[in-house]
Amino acid sequence: MSSNIRIEKTCEYCHNSFRAQKVTTRYCSELCNKRGYKKRIRDEKLNKAIEEENTKRPFNPVVKEKEFLSIKEVCMLIGASRWTVYRMIDNGLVKAAKIGRKTIIERNEINNLFL
Ligand SMILES: [Zn+2]
Protein backbone atom coordinates (compact mmCIF):
# COMPACT_ATOMS: atom_id res chain seq x y z
CA MET A 1 0.00 0.00 0.00
CA SER A 2 1.43 3.29 -1.04
CA SER A 3 0.60 6.32 1.05
CA ASN A 4 1.53 8.65 -1.75
CA ILE A 5 -1.85 8.52 -3.41
CA ARG A 6 -3.79 11.72 -3.10
CA ILE A 7 -7.43 11.80 -3.91
CA GLU A 8 -9.40 14.99 -4.32
CA LYS A 9 -12.40 14.74 -2.05
CA THR A 10 -15.04 16.93 -0.47
CA CYS A 11 -15.40 16.82 3.27
CA GLU A 12 -18.80 15.47 4.22
CA TYR A 13 -19.01 17.78 7.19
CA CYS A 14 -17.60 21.18 6.17
CA HIS A 15 -17.79 20.61 2.40
CA ASN A 16 -14.25 21.87 1.86
CA SER A 17 -12.25 20.01 -0.71
CA PHE A 18 -9.19 18.25 0.56
CA ARG A 19 -6.67 15.66 -0.49
CA ALA A 20 -7.30 12.28 1.03
CA GLN A 21 -4.85 9.43 1.28
CA LYS A 22 -7.53 6.81 1.17
CA VAL A 23 -10.64 6.43 -0.94
CA THR A 24 -12.62 5.75 2.20
CA THR A 25 -11.68 9.03 3.90
CA ARG A 26 -14.79 11.13 4.23
CA TYR A 27 -13.65 14.10 6.26
CA CYS A 28 -10.88 16.66 5.87
CA SER A 29 -9.78 16.54 9.49
CA GLU A 30 -10.07 14.69 12.77
CA LEU A 31 -12.46 17.37 14.00
CA CYS A 32 -14.79 17.06 11.02
CA ASN A 33 -14.61 13.31 11.38
CA LYS A 34 -15.81 13.56 14.99
CA ARG A 35 -18.46 16.14 14.23
CA GLY A 36 -19.65 14.33 11.14
CA TYR A 37 -19.93 11.12 13.09
CA LYS A 38 -21.94 12.80 15.84
CA LYS A 39 -24.17 14.44 13.30
CA ARG A 40 -24.81 11.11 11.61
CA ILE A 41 -25.78 9.52 14.92
CA ARG A 42 -28.06 12.45 15.68
CA ASP A 43 -29.74 12.29 12.26
CA GLU A 44 -30.21 8.56 12.58
CA LYS A 45 -31.84 8.96 15.99
CA LEU A 46 -34.09 11.70 14.66
CA ASN A 47 -35.16 9.68 11.64
CA LYS A 48 -35.86 6.71 13.83
CA ALA A 49 -37.99 8.80 16.16
CA ILE A 50 -39.97 10.24 13.25
CA GLU A 51 -40.45 6.80 11.78
CA GLU A 52 -41.65 5.40 15.09
CA GLU A 53 -44.06 8.28 15.49
CA ASN A 54 -45.48 7.63 12.04
CA THR A 55 -46.01 3.94 12.60
CA LYS A 56 -47.57 4.58 16.00
CA ARG A 57 -50.19 6.83 14.54
CA PRO A 58 -51.07 5.71 11.04
CA PHE A 59 -52.58 8.77 9.51
CA ASN A 60 -54.63 8.81 6.38
CA PRO A 61 -53.26 11.75 4.38
CA VAL A 62 -56.58 12.05 2.54
CA VAL A 63 -58.12 13.39 5.74
CA LYS A 64 -56.00 16.50 5.43
CA GLU A 65 -57.53 17.32 2.06
CA LYS A 66 -61.16 16.71 2.94
CA GLU A 67 -63.57 19.57 3.42
CA PHE A 68 -65.98 17.69 5.66
CA LEU A 69 -64.86 15.31 8.31
CA SER A 70 -66.48 12.60 10.36
CA ILE A 71 -66.03 12.50 14.12
CA LYS A 72 -63.50 9.74 13.67
CA GLU A 73 -61.50 11.76 11.18
CA VAL A 74 -61.48 14.78 13.47
CA CYS A 75 -60.15 12.53 16.23
CA MET A 76 -57.33 11.42 13.97
CA LEU A 77 -56.63 14.93 12.78
CA ILE A 78 -56.26 16.57 16.18
CA GLY A 79 -55.31 13.46 18.14
CA ALA A 80 -58.25 13.69 20.53
CA SER A 81 -60.75 11.13 21.72
CA ARG A 82 -64.32 10.87 20.39
CA TRP A 83 -65.52 12.10 23.74
CA THR A 84 -63.41 15.26 23.49
CA VAL A 85 -64.71 15.98 20.02
CA TYR A 86 -68.34 15.55 21.10
CA ARG A 87 -67.71 17.82 24.07
CA MET A 88 -66.24 20.47 21.76
CA ILE A 89 -69.43 20.29 19.70
CA ASP A 90 -71.58 20.56 22.86
CA ASN A 91 -69.58 23.55 24.04
CA GLY A 92 -70.06 25.24 20.69
CA LEU A 93 -66.32 25.23 20.00
CA VAL A 94 -66.93 23.50 16.72
CA LYS A 95 -70.10 23.46 14.70
CA ALA A 96 -71.29 20.11 13.51
CA ALA A 97 -74.07 19.03 11.21
CA LYS A 98 -76.09 15.87 11.30
CA ILE A 99 -76.63 14.12 8.05
CA GLY A 100 -78.85 11.17 8.73
CA ARG A 101 -77.12 9.36 11.57
CA LYS A 102 -73.75 10.78 10.68
CA THR A 103 -72.22 13.81 12.34
CA ILE A 104 -69.96 15.82 10.10
CA ILE A 105 -67.72 18.73 10.86
CA GLU A 106 -66.47 21.25 8.39
CA ARG A 107 -62.70 21.25 8.08
CA ASN A 108 -62.70 25.04 8.54
CA GLU A 109 -64.20 24.58 12.00
CA ILE A 110 -61.08 22.74 13.02
CA ASN A 111 -58.79 25.29 11.37
CA ASN A 112 -60.67 28.09 13.16
CA LEU A 113 -59.75 26.58 16.50
CA PHE A 114 -56.24 27.82 15.92
CA LEU A 115 -57.11 31.40 15.03
ZN1 LIG B 1 -14.07 19.21 7.01
Tell me the major beta sheet: 3 strands, antiparallel
Figure out the total of helices. Answer: 5
Assembly state (oligomeric): single chain
Stretches where pLDDT falls below 50 for ≥5 residues?
Answer: none
Mean pLDDT: 87
Q: Helix-strand pattern, N to C? A: EEHHEHHEEH
What ligands does this structure carry?
zinc ion
Q: Got a strand count?
A: 5
CATH architecture assignment name of the largest domain: Orthogonal Bundle
Strand order of the largest sheet: 3-5-4
Helical amount among residues, as a percent range?
40-55%
Number of domains: 2
Tell me the name of the CATH homologous superfamily of the largest domain: Winged helix-like DNA-binding domain superfamily/Winged helix DNA-binding domain
Structural class designation: alpha+beta
N- to C-terminal distance: 67 Å
**CATH top level class name of the largest domain:** Mainly Alpha
Shape: rod-shaped
Kindly report the CATH topology of the largest domain: Arc Repressor Mutant, subunit A
* Cα Rg: 26 Å
- Give the percentage of residues in beta strands: 15-25%
Question: What would your notes on this structure say?
Answer:
The protein is α+β, with helices and mostly antiparallel strands. It has 2 domains: 7-56; 61-112, Arc Repressor Mutant, subunit A (Orthogonal Bundle). 48% of the residues lie in helices and 17% in strands. The chain is built from 5 helices and 5 strands, in the order ββααβααββα. The strands form 2 sheets. It has a 3-stranded antiparallel β-sheet with strand order 3-5-4. Helix 3 (71-78) crosses helix 4 (82-90). It is rod-shaped and about 80 Å long. The model has no long low-confidence stretch (mean pLDDT 87). The structure holds zinc ion. Residues 11, 13-14, 16, 27-29, 32 line the site of zinc ion.
